[in-house]
Protein 1
Amino acid sequence: IDNRPQHESGFDINRWTWQRKIKHWKSPIHLITPSSWLSKCAKNSFIMNNWPSVIIPNPLNVNLWKPYDKDLTRGMFNFLNSSILIGFGGGDAPHKGFDLLLDALELLSKKTDVKFKLVVYGQYEKIDSPSYSFPIQYMGALQDDLSLCMLYSALDILAVPSRNDNLPNTAVEAISSGTPI
């Protein structure tokens, strides 16, 4: 199978890894996935299509991940204006879709009078960050789960523009905190 992207050159580590898996994974491994989507991906794979699998959702402490008072949490993070707060968590790895979100919000800001702010947590602003027609606040890495719970409660929505993901923990945590995705 030749599925290498045309822009890649040099040693093909993906092909090398795939060939090693075919050679060494002779006995089926019992797969545990957190979602139906990942289970279906395994069933559709060349190597794992006949392997047994079970779905076990990621555990979540609902005593911690719950809605907190929006006015209180906005005050904690100094989000005192009335603009809509759109959150994004994670880095700028291509599969996270941060570039897609920025492009979409740039279009939105030019087509509407609705005021919003993008709140990015889990990364710091880069020195060479381009400017946009909407404000972006970089929160950096939050130090504990309670701070993240409070941030989710302060947000109006969490954007998860992933190109390829399995409903990441950030989405599950935000939903449990009362913030739509």
Note: The radius of gyration is 20 Å.
Protein 2
Amino acid sequence: MGLDSPKNFHFDQIIGESPAMSQTIKLAKRVAESEVSSILLQGESGAGKDCLAKAIHNASQRAQAPFVAINCAALPPNLIESELFGYEKGAFTDAKSRKEGLLEQADGGTILLDEISELDINLQAKLLRVLEDGTFRRVGGLKDVRFTARVISASNRNLKKETEGGCFRLDLYFRLAVVQIDIAPLRDRGDDVLLLADHCLTSFGK
């Protein structure tokens, strides 16, 4: 969690020639080259959302800027807020000095919000304001900080259905899903299973 190395991961390293995966990669490449500010990746756990996010970053004009990732399911709401927005000295008991948040660290690059469906409803409102205004404030801060990163969100749940149950804000969903890319599970991708198996055997064999 935090500054993440995309490890020079590119689209040509994604294994899959099925129609479903070919269509996914084609759309992702188009989005990477565009100026779309928010992308939503949806797919089951293990479908490759993290890899696709890194490939999009590396194929974009933001490739030389930071790639920052946070797992929204890994931290309680109060810690996620300080991780995302940072905090000022004295904002709370242990805030001995100012700390930049991940939004600030991703300046000009890409931030991956993994497991976005797990984000607390109050933080959803704060994230919505960031996307609408293009600014945020550190915890305990009085000054607006400019937000310039591309947001890639990832979810193993159907966010549209989550909005219907009141678990996710509909307005935030529309902000995050300027372009939505659905990644098919491996069981629906035919011979991609064999391609992946062959790749694993070759890699482990070396």
Note: Helices lie at 19-33, 49-58, 77-85, 102-105, 121-133, 159-164, 170-176, 192-205.
